[in-house]
Specification:
Blueprint lengths: L7 E4 L2 E2 L6 E2 L13 E5 L8 E6 L4 E7 L2 E6 L4 E6 L4 E5 L4 E5 L6 E6 L8 E2 L2 H9 L4
Antiparallel strand pairs: 1-9, 2-3, 4-11, 5-10, 5-12, 6-9, 6-11, 7-8, 7-10
The structure holds thymidine-5'-diphosphate.
């Protein structure tokens, strides 16, 4: 059973250069799983929230490529808020946790890597259902 202690904020390599900085993340290296999918969230109105759900199987790695937003992780007992506002940090969020992304800044860009292909059956969208699965030890 995953808890919020399993969430990790990972500092990515960065090459600072007067011509512009460069950072990277590699499969099974800085990103601690095999990547099957990437997607990004953009053109979010300032202050908006998205993604209040849990995944059964999908592990994710979230980078604020531009701008800022807050990722709230919740294991049914404890919650923690991570503010992502630098493009050289990634947040690893394993499956089995409730997560929500809030407070997007205008023009922010969220890049997400996933360990699974998109599958709508992998989502738990009802918080009470999440709490029940957690208390039954099923996720
Ligand atoms: P969803 O994950 O529900 O976004 P949020 O939780 O922030 O509201 O995704 C929104 C829509 O995008 C949903 O109808 C399914 C589609 N989608 C894909 O087809 N593939 C993907 O990899 C993702 C993440 C979403």
């Amino acid at each position: 059973m995953k808890s919020i202690e399993d969430v990790k904020l990972i500092e990515l390599p960065k090459f600072l250069d007067a011509r512009g900085n460069l950072s990277f993340a590699e499969n099974n290296m800085q990103i601690p799983f095999e990547i099957k999918r990437t997607y990004w969230i953009y053109d979010v109105p300032g202050g908006e929230s998205r993604g209040a759900h849990a995944y059964l199987k999908n592990n994710e790695f979230i980078i604020a490529l531009s701008g800022a937003f807050d990722v709230i992780v919740d294991d049914g007992q404890q919650k923690k808020k991570y503010t992502l506002n630098r493009s050289y940090y990634g947040l690893y969020v394993p499956a089995g946790l409730w997560r929500e992304i809030e407070n997007f800044s205008t023009n922010s860009l969220a890049l997400e890597f996933g360990s699974e292909h998109y599958d709508k059956a992998d989502y738990i969208r009802k918080y009470d259902e999440f709490l029940k699965l957690k208390s039954d030890g099923k996720i």
